[in-house]
Amino acid sequence: MQLNFLERLFILSPLRRFLQDHFETRRLFEMGGSAKGARVLEVGCGPGFAIDLLYNQFNVSSVDAFDVDPKMVSRVQQRQNEKNRKPLLWVGNVRHIPVINYRYDAVFNFGAIHHVVDWRAALGEIHRVMKPGGQFYCEEILSRYITHPLIGRLMDHPQKDRFDEPQFIDALQNTGFRIESSRQLADLYLWVVATKA
């Protein structure tokens, strides 16, 4: 599901970049540690700000990334070309990741899964493309935020079958992940680090 006008403004804003840099990725790093030398995938990469953080904070060796919005992927390509990096980028959907099984040492999700109608299928695809023992670093928005009467009107999120923390954790475990750490903020935001068993 592509972002609406307000969501796109936020995703491209300095505020979003600041939060991702100083709050979201730092919390995931505290919970899951470095991914030094890892080949990683970022699902729903948006404008690609997190790719720099994956290299600089998590010390990954390479990043593949995709987004459902071609304009976002174009922005990522331009940013990475300026840094002389050649990541594998594509326009795609997290429910159908066009790569072989067991490709990645780690997968990162910075709030993309709540945009997916069949979010359980997305977790299954993420699990499929990870190597055994690989880590899933995940930051998500919970149903209380998404279905809020005001926010639900402003943001273009699916409204049915949204998840709270227990539902998301349960779905991860049913998919084959082992939960290493999870934290939530005010029943609105969730951070999880899970390992593919």
Overview of this structure, please?
It is a single chain. Strands 3-2-1-4-5-7-6 form a 7-stranded mixed beta sheet, sandwiched between helices. The mean pLDDT is 89. Helix 2 runs parallel beside helix 3. Strand 6 and strand 7 form a beta hairpin. It is 39% helix and 26% strand. With 197 residues, it is of the alpha/beta class. The longest helix is centred in the first third of the chain and has 19 residues.
Series of H and E elements = HHEHEHEEHEHHHEE
Please identify the oligomeric state.
Answer: single chain
Give me the Rg, rounded.
15 Å
Distance between the termini: 30 Å
Order of the strands making up the biggest sheet: 3-2-1-4-5-7-6
Structural class: alpha/beta
Number of strands: 7
Overall average residue pLDDT? 89
Contiguous runs where pLDDT drops below 50 for at least 5 residues: none
